[in-house]
Predict the 3D structure of the following.
Amino acid sequence: MPRILLTIAYDGTAYSGWQKQKNPAVRTVEGTVEEALSALFGKPVEVIGASRTDAGVHALGQRAVLDIETSIPTEKLPLALLKYLPEDITVVSAQTVADTFHPRFDCVKKTYSYRIWNGKTKNPKERLYAAFEHIPLDEERMNAATKKCIGTFDFASFCAAGSQALSTVRTIFDCHVQREGDAVTIFVTGDGFLYHMVRILAGTLIQVGKGRLAPEQMEQILLACDRTQAGPTAPAAGLTLEWIFYD
Amino acid sequence: MPRILLTIAYDGTAYSGWQKQKNPAVRTVEGTVEEALSALFGKPVEVIGASRTDAGVHALGQRAVLDIETSIPTEKLPLALLKYLPEDITVVSAQTVADTFHPRFDCVKKTYSYRIWNGKTKNPKERLYAAFEHIPLDEERMNAATKKCIGTFDFASFCAAGSQALSTVRTIFDCHVQREGDAVTIFVTGDGFLYHMVRILAGTLIQVGKGRLAPEQMEQILLACDRTQAGPTAPAAGLTLEWIFYD
């Protein structure tokens, strides 16, 4: 059966994360996408997702595959799915891939963004897609700290309890901070991320930006391999899975 | 009694507009703000708002005044109100004004923005704060058209039925279009706006951007003083009351 790769964008606000849960009453993105596909094809369809985003986390470039024999041309699938999906989930594109393609194992890197609304007061239009920090963030300090995390390291200090990862070593290819007015965004690209890793990194960089940590301390925090050395876990709302890269 | 001017930001998605309605079950921003003020001060408080935004329309700089004798310092009001307001409404600032100050009559100009997500596919993170248009918009054409609306004109072509305005003459001080990636934003500043005026202007500029109207036709549309000559009313979600100016 042909394997189809979907690129999926969603507003994660209303979902208990990507991954389907045993209790079918728990609303997940994966479950909702499978329901839409099942309704379209008139039979149960399951997908394999690339990334298990947490509750409240968003995605512009999540990926999932399904195996299906259909007369609908692959490139028409996004349009065909439109009426079966809620407003907060969109299938952005669909393409046929080799039937050995695996969205998780074949991933070479992923980019996440973490957005912080750094205005004097809360901005209601930003609350669902950004963390709020009223203390002015110094993005140059933050950028100095991000440089310390680029490379291959044991990121145990940036891994929440409950992680099932066998190794806490990951490679970060790029990490940088950008300001546009009152919005500060952290972009991070790596070969993979541990449980809550980007949110702990964001929480730590916010501490650096506020002047509570020196950029150089990032090195010691990494070396400590101790979660208590890093900053707090930043809220889910600020996090977006931007893109997943394949060869 | 001292008169206090509040600057209010809100996500209008969940509200039937600013203005309080006879049916108290209808959720309005004004009603919600008054409830918060009444809870804070322990007695019924009414406000006078500056602008009657429609259902689903947002604001970063709405204004409202209240008359109150209180021991809370004016500048502490935003913080004091925080726990009485829902997440989608924020009092950004508070200042004491002359007791003759009127938020509507003393307004010299207002700026609205209208955001359009002009990507190939819908972006779930944009759906609450932008209209969606997949046909590429030519912002240079749109900017050529905006120039035709700057000045004092009879904007009857841009006024929805049901308007109670005595005159349809308004002055537009500035109108321009800006693109950042897939987001196209129209900014318009004027001495006042007719019912649905910015949304009809946006709907017409979108037609120009798509190539369905020539920028020069803007002039004829204005001269016609006929609502049927202008484009459709663009959806409420894209509209934000950015700021209200006083002398």
Q: What stands out?
A: The domain at 108-246 of chain B is CATH 3.30.70.660 (Alpha-Beta Plaits).
